[in-house]
Fold each of these.
Amino acid sequence: MTTEDIVALLQKMGNEGTARVLRNHGAHDPCLGVKIGDMKPLQKQLKRNYLLSLELYDTGISRLEVISVPSPTLRSKLDIGSAF
């Protein structure tokens, strides 16, 4: 699943009322208005994918980093490799 696929899926799942509540509690725009509980099945499907989590974070959409939990081991290897 690509970043674009995930964003499209979450846009369908989003709710403007939920987005308004999230903005009132500090979420920034763009905010899709998807509850964490609704994202959990997608998170289980994606598992740990560090590169995908970086791509999701780079979109700037609020709370997308919740979906893909980065692997600390892979992060260390990639950061060390890019430092040289």
Amino acid sequence: MPTYEYKCDKCGHQFEKFQSFHEEPLKHCPNCNSSIRKILHAPSVVFKGSGWYSTDSKSSNSAAITKPTTDTAATKTEPTTTPAAAATQTPTPAPQEKTSCGGCGSGCTC
């Protein structure tokens, strides 16, 4: 049985009520007998992905449904550079070798 939340327009009293789907919504505040309104909330269950519609279910003819094959060699792409772009690229300098660590101050190469 669903729980509905109500709020009074006049006194601001907020309360919950267990009600059947077939019951009429409440109309009066139990505190001041003023008009109330039902507060709507987002559903707690969200269905995502395939399989939730009758058209997504498995066909009785499973041979008709085939999985697409992918060619891994065809899908791999190598980055390409134009000759003009290659000429404008500067080479990365080689890392310099450290002569001392500088952390301990003794001039060691640790």
Amino acid sequence: MGRVFCPVMKWLIADNNRAERELRPTVIARKASFGSQSEAGAKTRETLMSLMQTLKEQFKDPIAKIKRTLDELASNADLDVVNSVFLNQTTT
């Protein structure tokens, strides 16, 4: 598909090609590892992949962000993890 005219957004891409490309590595990893062997495993993978994709959109180095947050959590069990990750704030 190409672009379609939209009076509000001027030109709007009328396909989901970007989303499909972003999902591809996750689908390949799931296939290569023969998927999850349990419902809990599938839910864990789903959550982690969603977290990683969100962090990729917000930070240049999502792995470093996770490591820093885990280090903070190791030294402060009362850390508000969501606040630390997404708002760049640490609270006690």
